[in-house]
């Protein structure tokens, strides 16, 4: 005999937990199933174990989607202030790190505990280590065969996430379910991910691994100013993770190595003040010393700065402000923080997250084609989309 619920939520991540507690608070009998041995695994590892749980500056402009308007409704109805209110109600201390990013003072475990406590108070039944073997639809709604037995429900919420970080249990299950019920998928790829270099490009940087510097990374019309980190295999750091969501193989990627500076004016001033200094010495004032040396070994002539005429200094300035970075690929889903693409929003209501062609079926969080920037935006989409569905189931 199948156990029956008002709502079944597949996936115990940020969006699934939010949806479950919201529906439970409305008096719904909710079952949340999670195939891993605990809920909130990505929450636990996020923000270096401190969980960057939202961003106070969240707006629709911080998201990538084939339909940039889709996220507006849910984000407007559940704001960062709404989530902060819950955090404060549970007495969780937090701080703003930079650019509106809020982190726990202590541990991301507190956010998971808060969500589980809210689910518990709302009577949500959470089952971990529970795999879904099949889903079908009949007169009574949805029938699920799971490792804990058969379950039925008129409402089914798919919150199973994307493909990023398979070591945390990520699978394509949500995408398969979407296709089973006639939904279109947009191509998926790794987002917020380090970029790899190869051949001579990699060789030129390999021994600078661990070196960090502020840059403005540009790809097409998009740019991000933050730190870049040189790695054994390529480049990472916040500026690179951000631009990686916009970059695809073959795209032109440029770095401004002196962000916020007029490089030519700065070089002319250096030439006036210290004409005898070599270019690598001058550049080491503004860049890490080893990085400045490498620029002068490979890309720039190194000689006393007085020996450069203005056209030559203009060439140096051009390279510093639009340094060409030839990436060969990304580190892939293994280290990606998010998955771009996914369930096409054309088939989903933007206000309720319900399927337009299968009543009672909902898609929330990362499984949907809505991807946030680095800095708490993906969690805010999880909270907002989970809340919107939780109000509608």
Automatic annotation (TrEMBL):
Entries under InterPro entries matching the protein: BaiN-like, BaiN-like_dom_sf, FAD/NAD-bd_sf, RsdA/BaiN/AoA(So)-like_dom, RsdA/BaiN/AoA(So)_Rossmann
Keyword Nucleus listed: no
Keyword field: FAD, Flavoprotein
Span of domain RsdA/BaiN/AoA(So)-like Rossmann fold-like: 6-391
Highest taxon of the lineage: Bacteria
Domain RsdA/BaiN/AoA(So)-like insert, chain residue ranges per copy: 189-338
Spans through the membrane: none
Cofactor(s) essential for the protein: FAD
Signal peptide: none
Keyword Flavoprotein in record: yes
Protein name: Membrane protein
Organism: Pseudoxanthomonas dokdonensis
